[in-house]
Amino acid sequence: MYAEERQQEILRRARAIGRVDVVTLGEEFSVTTETIRRDLTVLERAGVLRRVHGGAIPVERLGFEPALAARDEVMTAEKERIAKAAVAEIPDDGAIIIDAGSTTGRLVQILPPDRELTVIVNSPPLATALAARANLNVIMLGGRVRGRTLATVDDWALRPLARLNVDVAFMAANGCSVAKGLTTPDPAEAAIKRAMIKAAKRSVLLADHTKFADTYLACFASLSEIDMVVTDTGLDPATAAEVAAAGPEVVRA
């Protein structure tokens, strides 16, 4: 097992049970405790775990929301596969919304150059990346910029969305479950996401498999309100079947 694979499994276990132990991980992965401590240091620097005596706790359990830069450093291969699969849902022309997020940011990077599109975003970095494209009409929603996610929120972002009609909204979420739907830690971001889905004919969620282990404070949609979920093959078939039974088509890239 490569170090990145081991670190991703450590993160998955921490999120699933709430804590991981250095000695136990060393025994289960047949590596030294020093190797596990280095893994935990990498994950802590990425902002997804917090080191505690003898092990680590996922930041979600401590009430922290990982910053966008930290989230962009984990599950990179899975996020790239998800973005590539989501390209098939981009219309040849028309209007789309791309929500602020690390996986949706990968979609921005590989947006096909031959499409004539109006693209609505609520993220200054995404707007900057798209603005140089001559074939795109880029609209950035105004409002307060949240430092942790670099997403614009509040009334100046909500009001324009109420008057827009787009073909597809490509959405991000911090958590996803059949019981609790799509969730995010911040109610202001949840309100924007809810309005994005309402403004779109179709909504496509881009979420790696780790998002299906967590639930956060604010729900912005049920799975029945989403048309498609694009995830990675790390999502087990049983969970994928449960998600599909709730309404959306599930694509495992």
TrEMBL record:
SMART domains: DeoRC (SM01134), HTH_DEOR (SM00420). Pfam families: DeoRC, HTH_DeoR. GO terms for molecular function: DNA binding. Residues 3-58 form the HTH deoR-type domain. Keywords: DNA-binding, Repressor, Transcription, Transcription regulation. InterPro entries: Carb_Metab_HTH_regulators, DeoR-like_C, DeoR_HTH, NagB/RpiA_transferase-like, WH_DNA-bd_sf. The keyword Repressor applies. Repressor of the lactose catabolism operon. Galactose-6-phosphate is the inducer. This is Lactose phosphotransferase system repressor.
